Amino acid sequence: MSDTSVIYVLNGPNLNLLGVREPEIYGRDTLADIEQRCVTAAGDARIVFRQTNHEGVLVDWIQEARESAQALIINPAAYGHTSVALHDALKTLSIPVIELHLSNPAAREAFRHHSYVSSAATGVIAGFGAAGYELAVQAALTKVRERA
Ligand code: CA2
């Protein structure tokens, strides 16, 4: 049996447009660039990197991670501000969960200040652009090692 750690990196709605629109807010890296940064940061660990525009698909993938992953990183995008379903799904996990945002929602419009994900997460990384994904992978690996 392999002891390679598996880290799920899930991305919510509109993040497929990264690098194409609004680079002044979200940067110039595409999601494919960010995936590569995660793979490099993960070293021997395996990254499962996905994006969807659909809330229920995110719920399905979170449930899948219960069986398949040692840690989960999620940029829920706008669903972080709206989704009780994501909160409930994340609360079922016993692995480390890292909420991630490229921007710092607390420094933006008031409707971005509340997150349904934060209260189900182990920790939150926000405001560091694409580099935040590498920080999140490092944080996930640290948490996985602590639990080993
Ligand atoms: O800063 C983040 O990572 C966010 O999760 C991004 C979400 C936003 O709703 C959250 O408040 C903070 C928006 C993702 C939209 O992604 C786009 C990417 C390129 C162009 C347009 C939208």
From TrEMBL:
Q: What is its EC number?
A: 4.2.1.10
**Site, as annotated: Transition state stabilizer:** 21
Name the Gene3D superfamilies for this protein: Dehydroquinase, class II
Assembly, per entry = Homododecamer.
Q: Which GO terms describe its biological process?
A: amino acid biosynthetic process; aromatic amino acid family biosynthetic process; chorismate biosynthetic process; quinate catabolic process
**Pathway connected to this protein:** Metabolic intermediate biosynthesis; chorismate biosynthesis; chorismate from D-erythrose 4-phosphate and phosphoenolpyruvate: step 3/7
Q: What is this protein called?
A: 3-dehydroquinate dehydratase
Residues given in the record as substrate binding sites: 75, 81, 88, 102-103, 112
Pfam families xrefs: DHquinase_II
Provide the family line. Belongs to the type-II 3-dehydroquinase family.
Recorded catalytic activity of this chain's protein: 3-dehydroquinate = 3-dehydroshikimate + H2O
Instruction: Report the top EC class in one word.
Output: lyase
Sorted keywords for this record are: Amino-acid biosynthesis, Aromatic amino acid biosynthesis, Lyase
Q: Which CDD domains match?
A: DHQase_II
Record's function text: Catalyzes a trans-dehydration via an enolate intermediate.
Instruction: Return one GO MF term.
Output: 3-dehydroquinate dehydratase activity
Q: Where is the active site?
A: 26, 101
